[in-house]
Amino acid sequence: MDLALKKPIVFFDIESTGLSVIHDRIIEISFIKVYPDESEDRRTYLFNPTIPISAEATKVHGITNEQVASCPTFSEKAKEIFEFIGDSDLSGFNALKFDIPMLIEEFQRNGINFDVSKRNLVDVQIIFHKMEERTLSAAYKFYCDKEIENAHSADADTAATYEVFKAQLKRYPNLGASIAEISDFTGINQRADLEGRIVYNDKNIAVFNFGKHKGKAVEEIFTKEPSYYNWMMDNDFSTNTKQVITNIKMKMLQQKLNGG
Predict the structure, then answer these.
(1) What is the set of domains in the chain, with CATH numbers?
(2) Could you read off the pLDDT of 128-177 as tens digits, one per residue?
(3) 177 alpha-carbon distance from chain centroid
(4) pTM recorded for the entire structure
(5) Which of 212, 229, 9 is closest to 123 using CA atoms?
(6) Pick from 233, 235, 153, 243: which is nearest to 194 by CA?
(7) Spatial distance between the Cα atoms of 4 and 53, rounded to a whole number of angstroms
């Protein structure tokens, strides 16, 4: 099935100094922006992260501190990248838990509010796990019958993700033809935040999906235990998660002011 795009979608992949969305930094990011007319715009950036790259991360992607010492920082390219993405929908492999939250954090450090709430998000890994349950390399082999050359470079992984996604469209006609339909299939809309720490229950109420209050309504807990909001804001939750709980908190205050 061909993809019916109403606006551009950006596929991207990140290589970083480590695995912490909050504390680590982007060192390489690659984009494929696909337009409704099927034309593509590909870009790759290499950054000096301004913090050391962990030895564990270098073992995975092969990028060393010396290689990026003279590269621009993310701050120098933040506005350019923000404008390149524009209002596009977003896609990647494991993008919801890692790539998108990390990109939000980098923009946040540079005073840019990167709002994903009105974008369709498609995590190709979720489609793969729902259908076949494997990794990106296995997905590429399974769907495209090829091995990824230069795996764990942002450019190669982004290209592989896009190819896997196109192969998935052909293999699974029931995914739908629009990004909105595909995003809905993956269940992303059931999440209030990207990482799934806050989700919607069957009554469309935001509930906690972790910890001692798992399954309980966020508003209920913030009413009975107001300090829990402060605890979350003071700890290592992503900017996106903090934005979501703050929006809930502000809604509660507004309802109180309105006598609700």
Answers:
(1) 9-190 (3.30.420.10), 198-257 (no CATH)
(2) 988 886 789 999 999 999 999 988 899 999 999 999 999 999 999 999 88
(3) 21
(4) 0.79
(5) 9
(6) 243
(7) 40
